[in-house]
Amino acid sequence: MENSAQxxxxxxxxxxVLIPLSDYGREGASIRYKAWVCSNPECGYNIRIDNGEIxxxxxxxxxxx
Length: 65
Description:
Layout: E1 18-24, E2 30-38, E3 46-50, E4 53-56
């Protein structure tokens, strides 16, 4: 089965694509596409929504929650 979804190319490194990530809000509601992260691990570019504000380029780390 072929995946018809095409993700946008990362304009920072031009070597990866931006992958959408989802999360859950404080009260358990699903938040679709809260963040977009470059698939190239050496790039690390990301853009995300936090409390209604857009931020980009923050360091990415693993969560142990």
